[in-house]
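We now fix the convention by which a protein and its fold are recorded. These numbers are not coordinates but entries in a learned vocabulary of local backbone shapes. A record is reproduced here so that you can trace the correspondence yourselves:
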Amino acid sequence: MRAIVVECNIPKVPSRVEEVASMARNIGYDVLEIIVQKRESVHHSTCVGPGKLTEIRKVVEEKGIEFVIFANTLPSSQVFKVQKGLGGDVKVIDRNLLILEVFDKRAMTKEAKLQIRLARLRYTFSWGREFLRLEGILGEQVGWSGPGDYPYSEYEREARKRISRLEAELRDLYKKKGLLRERRRELGFPIVALAGHTQSGKTTFFNRVASEGKNVGLGPFTTLSTVARRVIIPSSGSNTEFILVDSIGFIEDMHPTILKAFNTTLGEIVQADLILLFC
């Protein structure tokens, strides 16, 4: 998957381009080039300016680029306008969609997979209307009715149904998790939660203390579901027992839609008796 990473870097906003390039490489993208444009503000239509977009198009054509990954967050209108400006079959994704793709690659449990599907649906929900609007501008037909309110209403209705189904499945899982938390409290075990940035060493610590063998060192977001284990620390008097919880790592400026999907993880952290923060 040949890709380039692009960023519109504006004053007082930290650059995310190296972080995004690292995430992309970790899940199999061949990042051939990094392009950064410094501006006072992002361009209202295409994030980067028209001249820079032309430069990016040349790189795409010369190097056979398949994916253009923006380190910025792009609204749906910008995604489609950039893609139209680049032409061909190149796909345009932003930092948030890349994070969701990383999540998807790392997901091992049913809960994590459901949360990722829900976050992606919520994040791209508004894209249907924009897609239909731009297709209409191009004079192309969408479905049997062509561009207009009817096809969007169909899209919106189906998307809402899928979101509702996923939310219902997750509610069942959350209920079971809640019962487990209540049971731990009834047994009188203190709960210690590990929290912090991705790749900060939480799972390595968890493995050492809980004598577990969870995967580590596979790139960002190796842990996507909470895992709890009872830990017993022998002492000369009575043993010390507690529940140790490993949780998903976070990064700065994570989109609220993505953050909201990981309800269980946040619940485990909030309700812990002690939170160990890894930086």
Summary: The two ends are 32 Å apart (CA to CA). Strands lie at 2-9, 30-38, 67-70, 91-93, 191-196, 227-233, 240-246, 274-278. Residues 152 and 158 are 10 Å apart (CA to CA).
